[in-house]
From TrEMBL, chain A:
Organism this protein belongs to: Wenxinia marina DSM 24838
CDD domains tied to this protein: PBP1_ABC_sugar_binding-like
Segments forming domain Periplasmic binding protein: 26-272
UniProt GO molecular function: carbohydrate binding
Signal peptide: 1-20
Matching Pfam families: Peripla_BP_4 (PF13407)
One GO cellular component, as annotated: cell envelope
Superkingdom in the source lineage: Bacteria
Main location: other
Protein name (Swiss-Prot/TrEMBL): Monosaccharide ABC transporter substrate-binding protein, CUT2 family
Keyword Coiled coil listed: no
Keywords, in A-Z order: Signal
Subcellular location(s) of the protein: Cell envelope
InterPro entries: Peripla_BP_I, SBP_2_dom
TrEMBL record, chain B:
PANTHER family, alphabetized: ABC TRANSPORTER PERMEASE PROTEIN YPHD-RELATED-RELATED, RIBOSE IMPORT PERMEASE PROTEIN RBSC
Cellular component aspect of the GO annotation: plasma membrane
CDD domains to which the protein is assigned, alphabetical: TM_PBP1_transp_AraH_like
Pfam families per UniProt: BPD_transp_2
Name of this chain's protein: Monosaccharide ABC transporter membrane protein, CUT2 family
Main localization (coarse): membrane
Family annotation (InterPro entries): ABC_transp_permease
Length: 313, 335
């Protein structure tokens, strides 16, 4: 796993959690596995915890998965009250509802690592492990430009209307600007196979000639491919997904012309966050700041490095 | 709302003349078709019509069953999760049987049987809890909704259950092909709708459902086995969820926790748009079919045009659902 380390300017020594306790408890609070990406994230969190508990006998981990923001707040409060955690790794379900509770815990001196979705107030956390959404869009756009040097007509499937989706699409649009690539239409497929199938069917009815599809997500790419196949259309040269689902990485590895590449947004970033937190708690190495995990273009040449056959995603 | 109080007689009344409120949903559907045709020339193409009808089939088949449940004064919120769970189970069973049975008719029949049995059992569980245990339908099905949704997430280990590639290819004709250019989902939806309409109008069961939904005490005194009839509506709905799933699985060959999300509300909305009374006592199966088509057409038209920001899709759907129901209420007040 290549990691682009961009430690923030604010390097500070970690003092608080390293006390004379026999075992230090690290709490990990993440959303439940309600979709593919979250499923992968759960898998990698569990795997990182299992590995770290062997490496650091003095560390103990509590993992809680929440199905909604309110449950996540209770989970975190329980971790502090019942387990006396000295560090918290949290992937907030939603930014707003989690900001207050996490701030209260940070004020008690608990180390806070925030993953992927930032809190509403940026200076609560000690460490922020972030995915790069504008970068995800940019890498996707740059690939489109390189794959279609003479330009062409594409359709775009967007995710659930959120900041994440907006940042990705803006990054994409900026990257293809002036390249002769023309976006015929954009609709929300909600990161969902069924919705993207429906949207793609309608795109196919609407446009007689489409050169390529930016599905922007591997689940959506599955629906898009099924719709194209069912319609028997051969004008579409390729579909670009994203996130790094193992089935899609496999197709890239196999040299499938419809899926020539993929762009990562790795759910394993939770493992990065847990590892860094463990390093911070057990050593004097400074780990505070912001750690941005870049989105990488997966091609047949490097696909093997991004293929995790055991992960559910 | 007058129909609720005299619900038992309502089906007979609907047969009398052509009341305006009967036309409400049909007018809405015709208006949508005209709008669609004006906005995009491909709207009435055979390909688009097939797409819309085929994708309506899942919700449509479920909504026909939901019409009976609601007519009998019940409700089922679990159908979307149930569909996801049955789809997951069907995929698991077929994948497990594949090494011993090989790709072929037997394994496909096994998958189909799994879906039907699972649907029957799931519907029966809902029905038993509601009738013999006397728990509110809303609460029971809210509970089973959570249970099935969690079960499919658990079966899939948080990810996606995918049908073996060879199996998927073998199964695909169930969704994509058909007879005389009409695909299977459309044919099955039509058959289910026709049978539903006949059962609702012409059989004792249909009349019992309306009587129970209208006033279950009176129905009980009229020696209707209220509990058994109610149980049948839930078992029937479960079976129809199974049938819908049989055609859902071949489409993408996968199931995850994102499968069937909000299907229950779409089905209930279609039933109500079609003129069935949410409190029970009066049901109209053909109205439900119109309701389902209205819902799918809205999505289709919004995808085919750039007229509205995609952020507003939900709002447009909401407005049209409410309008379709107002159309009926106003004309009802006048009759």
């Amino acid at each position: 796993m290549t990691k682009h380390l961009m430690m923030g300017a604010a390097f500070s020594l970690l003092a608080a959690p390293v006390l004379a306790q026999e075992t230090t408890v690290i709490g990990v609070s993440i959303p439940a596995a309600t979709h593919g990406w979250a499923g992968g994230m759960n898998f990698h969190a569990q795997e990182a915890i299992d590995r770290l508990e062997e490496v650091y006998p003095e560390l103990d981990f509590v993992l809680a998965t929440a199905s909604d923001p309110a449950k996540q707040v209770s989970d975190i409060e329980d971790m502090v009250a019942a387990r006396g955690i000295s560090a918290l790794v949290v992937l907030p379900f939603e930014s707003e509802p989690l900001t207050g509770p996490v701030k209260a815990i940070a004020d008690q001196g608990v180390w806070v690592t925030v993953v992927d979705r930032g809190l509403s107030e940026p200076n609560i956390q000690d460490l922020y492990v972030a995915g790069d959404n504008p970068g995800f869009g940019r890498v996707s756009g740059e690939y489109m430009v390189s794959a279609m040097p003479d330009g062409g007509d594409i359709v775009v499937l967007r995710g659930i209307p959120t900041t994440i989706d907006n940042e990705r699409v803006e990054g994409f649009q900026a990257a293809i600007e002036g390249s002769g690539i023309n976006i015929l239409g954009m609709e929300h497929g909600n990161w969902n196979r069924d919705d993207s199938f429906t949207v793609m069917q309608d795109f196919l009815s609407r446009y007689p000639e489409i050169d390529a599809v930016w599905a922007s997500d591997d689940d959506m790419a599955v629906g898009v491919l099924a719709a194209i196949e069912a319609a028997g259309r051969d004008d579409i040269q390729f579909v670009l997904g994203g996130a790094g689902m193992k089935e899609m990485i496999q197709r890239v590895m196999d040299g499938d012309t419809m899926i020539p590449a993929d762009v990562t947004y790795p759910p394993s970033m939770i493992a990065t966050a847990i590892e860094l937190t463990a390093v911070g708690v057990t050593s004097s190495a400074p780990v505070s700041g912001t750690f941005t995990i870049g989105s990488v273009l997966v091609t047949p040449e490097n696909a093997e490095n991004y293929y995790f056959p055991d992960s559910p995603f | 709302m007058t129909t609720t109080t005299e619900g038992g007689a309502a089906p007979a009344k609907a047969r009398h003349g052509v009341n305006l409120h009967v036309l409400g949903p049909i007018l809405a559907l015709i208006a949508l078709v005209i709008v669609g045709a004006l906005m995009n020339s491909n709207f009435l193409s055979a390909g688009n019509v097939t797409n819309v009808l085929a994708r309506s089939a899942f919700i449509g088949i479920i909504a026909v069953g939901m019409t009976f449940v609601i007519t009998a004064g019940g409700l089922d919120l679990s159908v979307g999760s149930m569909a996801a769970f049955i789809a997951g189970l069907m995929i698991l069973v077929m994948n497990l049987a594949l090494p011993s049975m090989g790709v072929g008719l037997p394994v496909m029949l096994l998958g189909i049987a799994t879906a039907l049995v699972a649907g029957l059992v799931a519907g029966w569980i809902n029905g038993i809890l509601i009738t013999t245990m006397r728990i509110e339908a809303f609460i029971v099905t809210l509970g089973t909704m959570g249970i099935y949704r969690s079960l499919v997430t658990w079966l899939a280990d948080g990810g996606t259950l995918s049908l073996d590639f060879g199996l998927r290819t073998a199964l695909q004709p169930l969704y994509y092909s058909g007879i005389l250019g009409i695909s299977w989902p459309i044919i099955v939806f039509a058959i289910v709708a026709i049978i539903g309409e006949v059962v609702m109008r012409m059989t004792a069961f249909g009349r019992y459902c309306a009587a129970i939904g209208s006033n279950d005490q009176v129905a009980r005194y009229s020696s209707v086995n209220v509990n058994r009839m109610r149980l049948y509506t839930y078992v029937g709905l479960g079976l129809l969820v199974g049938i819908a799933t049989i055609m859902y699985v071949p489409r993408l060959g996968s199931a995850s926790s994102a499968t069937g999300v909000l299907w229950e509300l779409e089905a209930i909305a279609a039933v109500i748009i079609g003129g069935t009374v949410l409190k029970g006592g009066f049901g109209r199966v053909w109205g439900t079919v119109i309701g389902v088509l209205i819902l799918s057409l809205i999505g289709n038209i919004l995808n085919l045009t750039d007229a509205v920001s995609p952020y507003l899709n939900g709002a447009i759907q909401g407005v049209i659902i409410v309008l379709a129901v107002i159309l009926q209420r106003e004309s009802k007040a006048g009759d």
